[in-house]
Design a protein that fits this description.
12 helices, Aspartate Aminotransferase, domain 2, four-stranded antiparallel sheet, 335 residues, seven-stranded mixed sheet, Aspartate Aminotransferase, domain 1, alpha/beta, single chain
Length: 335
């Protein structure tokens, strides 16, 4: 069964009959102010990708680790990892990015969902494999690096793995375990899709010990990341001025989004600089009502909450605020 994710704008266009240009899509958590990619050189289209083109070095400098493997999006890596070990008991953070649990289940492993609170209590260390998302999507939970390293030590002592999905950590790099990547049993997934806003390139990185990266590289095969994408990713990773300015901008806009949502929702608003999530028993109703106004947000899988990404401009902010004012007035009147 196909799992639901943000970014399904095409489906909504067909379902609602509203043209794509008339939508405010806040469903993905992708940076709405992407790094402006220049045109790659023609040779990147005509020649096979060169593994010595400087991408690995640029990524190593950005992530603070040389234990790194470029992959065609972190999604491809997480889908392959379950096939690199025998049947195992796997703990996966829940709620979280649903593709993790699906990938391990599909490969025949025994998957057990654990909440952020259960993980905080150390429950995940009893498993062969622990999958953590830091910060977590959609509840925005941050796990301290020292806590994660302690879990890794206990799991690796039994030959287990800890996989940390850091797709949203670029805005707060102090939480990243990337510099610890060579540690045994630790595999980190990173993406240029969220923070850099380059989701369509499908470029990511796996960081970990040599044996794990070698096996992952073998199953992905040669030239797994295309040449133009490698060239653009290398340039983006090296643009430190843009990165510093964008972190400041996203922090401010994330706080602005949180303050806006707090005015309309009585429950605590949680999240990261790139998204905010609210839990509400009226989530499905609000999702549908916003969609009728051409505002698309992410309805959580349990239909008990909504995730809001950042508007791209002031018109988007005004449209979101006006939409919330109208929709929430209707929800309150019916409650």
């Amino acid at each position: 069964m196909r799992r639901r994710h943000g970014g399904n704008l095409g489906e909504m266009v067909r379902a609602m009959g509203r043209p794509e240009s008339d939508w405010l899509d806040l469903s993905t958590g992708i940076n709405p102010h992407p790094w402006e990619a220049p045109t790659p050189p023609p040779a990147t289209w005509y020649q096979l990708p060169d593994p010595h083109d400087g991408l690995v070095e640029a990524a190593a400098a950005y992530y603070g680790s040389e234990a790194i493997l470029p992959v065609p999006g972190s999604q491809s890596a997480l889908a392959m990892l379950p096939y690199l070990r025998g049947r195992s008991r796997v703990a996966v953070i829940d709620p979280g990015y649903s593709e993790h649990a699906a990938a391990w289940s599909r490969a025949g492993h025994d998957v057990v969902p654990l909440s952020s609170a259960q993980l905080a209590g150390g429950a995940g260390t009893a498993f062969d494999v622990l999958v953590v998302i830091n910060p977590n999507n959609p509840d925005g939970t941050y796990f301290e690096p020292e806590t994660l390293l302690d879990w890794r030590t206990r799991i690796a002592s039994r030959g287990g793995w800890m996989i940390v999905d850091e797709a949203f950590v670029d805005t707060n790099p102090e939480y990243s375990l990337a510099p610890q990547a060579p540690l045994p049993g630790l595999l980190i997934l990173r993406s240029v899709g969220k923070f850099f806003g380059l989701a369509g390139m499908r470029v990511g990185f796996a960081l970990g010990p040599d044996d794990m990266l070698h096996r992952l590289d073998e199953v992905l095969g040669p030239w797994s990341v295309n040449g133009p994408a490698r060239w653009v990713a290398r340039s983006a990773l090296g643009d430190r001025c843009w990165q510093a300015a964008m972190r400041d901008r996203l922090q401010a806009e994330g706080e602005r989004l949180g303050e806006l949502l707090t005015r309309y929702f009585s429950r605590r608003v949680v999240g990261t600089p790139l998204f905010r999530t609210v839990l509400t028993p009226h989530a499905a109703t609000i999702h549908e009502a916003l969609a009728e106004q051409g505002i698309l947000v992410r309805l959580l899988d349990r239909q008990d909450g909504l995730r809001f990404g950042l508007p791209p401009d002031e018109d988007g902010w005004r449209r979101l605020e006006a939409g919330l004012a109208e929709v929430m007035a209707g929800v309150v009147s019916r409650a």
